[in-house]
Amino acid sequence: MSGIDELDIYIGLMERQLQHPFNTRITLTDGRFNSREELYVFSIRRSEYKKLEQIRGGYSFEFWGKEHPCSIVDLRTNQVRLRIEELREERIEEGTINVDTTNIIKREKWGLQQLKEEQFLDKRRLLFTGRFSGGTRSECIFEENLNEEQRHAVEYAVGVQDVYLIWGPPGTGKTTIVPEIVRNYIHQLFQPQKLRTKFISGFI
């Protein structure tokens, strides 16, 4: 088995996602225009901050039913600074950042299409027919407030012996759990007979 059929299934999934892209809306409040820096300063709730921190895509700012292209200049737990095109209101009581993930999905689809090339045959075999040693669920200590699925991902990622893939749509907390994996893995290094090599990679 070369893995071509499996890749076609995943590519088909990407194509369906492109037909119905996943867009995230983040509410911002109490916006003030800083004329010196030519940008807006908004307040953001911590829950909204976490969503915005974990997702990447094309940004636009919606105000009174009209969307304006924008870019994030600075993001903090309670404040976000935006540069918004064609908008010069002094005060904005409430607005919305819309995050379009279409470009991310297109890059993922392109990566899967590249794997179909003959030069990546070995990588396809590793992904779809490889034999791994597996691993065990490892007891971990958490500093972030993670849900049950995120905790399981950390525990199995720390306990794996070969490869552990964590997949999730934008905004599901992949960025949040990476520090938890690293922190717990370092803790494991000090335990006898548990020394091993681990690489952590993220695609954003």
3D architecture notes:
This protein has 204 residues and is of the alpha+beta class. The protein has 2 domains: 23-100, Elongation Factor Tu (Ef-tu), domain 3 (Beta Barrel); 131-199, no CATH class. It is built from 6 helices and 6 strands; from the N terminus they run H-E-E-H-E-E-E-E-H-H-H-H. The chain has a 6-stranded antiparallel barrel with strand order 1-2-5-4-3-6. Strand 3 (58-63) and strand 4 (66-75) form a beta hairpin. Helix 1 (4-19) packs antiparallel against helix 3 and helix 5 (148-159) crosses helix 6. The longest helix is centred in the first third of the chain and has 16 residues, at 4-19. The model has no long low-confidence stretch (mean pLDDT 84).
- What's the helix count? 6
Straight-line N-to-C gap:
30 Å
Please describe the biggest sheet, giving its number of strands, its sense, and whether it closes into a barrel: 6 strands, antiparallel, barrel
Architecture of the largest domain, according to CATH? Beta Barrel
Total domain count:
2
Our estimate of the beta-strand percent is 15-25%
Shape: flat
- What is the element string, with H for helices and E for strands? HEEHEEEEHHHH
